[in-house]
Amino acid sequence: MSDLLSSLSERELAELSAFADGTLAPERRAEVEARVAASPELLELVERQRRTVAATQALSAEEPPESLVATVDALSSGRIKRRSGARWFAPRLALAGGLAVVAAVLAAIVLTGGPGGPTVADAARLASRSPTGPAPAAITSTRLSANVQGVVFPNFARWAGWQAQGVLRGKVDGRDATVVFYGKDGRRIAYAIVAGSGLPRPSGGQVTNIGGVEYQTLSVNGRLAVTWPRGGHTCVLVGDATRAELLRLASWPL
């Protein structure tokens, strides 16, 4: 992420910030929106900026704690150095907001895991790769043998016609993650489960409540995806299926 930030000009950062908070000039919006949609990294950056804006709005009227004031003062005076290669995204906020806004930006970064924290977009990118291992065996009519910390993968074959085709094990910002790939009629979907506590929910997208669980549908690099919590972990289902089909697969009881 720091490499991406370093490659962006101040104008590009300002436009991305304005796009995230809804103030980008109409004549620039289509071009910036297309660029963001084509890049998972920029999409992640915009989503984090939106969380920063939300935190700013929530905290701007509050008195920041003394420890945070001291940290902001130390940053501004140079007594604390930022990590090498890192740059602030949200130039509009930093220029316009004063101490309360800077405090909100810091709080948002801490709460969302910081610029290097794992995201749903990271999990979706892992799911866009190809399997490296054979399909896990079916242990019941509804479950496969693969699992992540006890959260099992579903067996879609009998009731939905999606056959498990392979598995990929990798990392999402240092966390273990497993992806099971399914195929049907020449189409492919990927079901990812990330180890550890749930990832921050991305901003935007459409939320559907099914059985008390919130399923969030969004586009990641032009591909439709659904993300939701299971067993304290984050699941992501992405691929060649309609929104209704992805939601039906994601919410199938195990």
Reading the helices and strands in chain order gives HHHHHHHHEEHEEEEEEEH
User: Based on the structure given, which CATH architecture of the largest domain is correct?
Assistant: 2-Layer Sandwich
Q: In which range does the helix fraction lie?
A: 40-55%
Largest sheet: 7 strands, antiparallel
For CATH, the homologous superfamily of the largest domain is named as MucB/RseB, C-terminal domain
For the record, give the distance between the C-alpha atoms at the N and C termini, rounded to a whole number.
36 Å
Mean pLDDT over the full residue set? 76
* Class by alpha and beta content: alpha+beta
CATH names the topology of the largest domain as: Phosphorylase Kinase, domain 1
The total of beta strands comes to 9
Q: List the total number of helices.
A: 10
Q: What is the C-level CATH assignment of the largest domain?
A: Alpha Beta
Biggest sheet strand order reads: 3-4-5-9-8-7-6
Describe the structure.
The two termini are 36 Å apart. This protein has 10 helices and 9 strands. It folds into 2 domains: 2-111, no CATH class; 120-250, Phosphorylase Kinase, domain 1, CATH 3.30.200. By secondary structure, the protein is α+β, with helices and mostly antiparallel strands. Helix content is 40%, strand content 26%.
Give a topology summary.
Layout: H1 2-7, H2 10-21, H3 26-37, H4 40-59, H5 66-77, H6 91-96, H7 98-111, H8 120-127, E1 143-148, E2 151-154, H9 157-160, E3 163-172, E4 175-184, E5 187-194, E6 206-210, E7 213-220, E8 223-230, E9 233-239, H10 243-250
Antiparallel strand pairs: 1-2, 3-4, 4-5, 5-9, 6-7, 7-8, 8-9
Helix pairs in contact: 2-4, 4-7
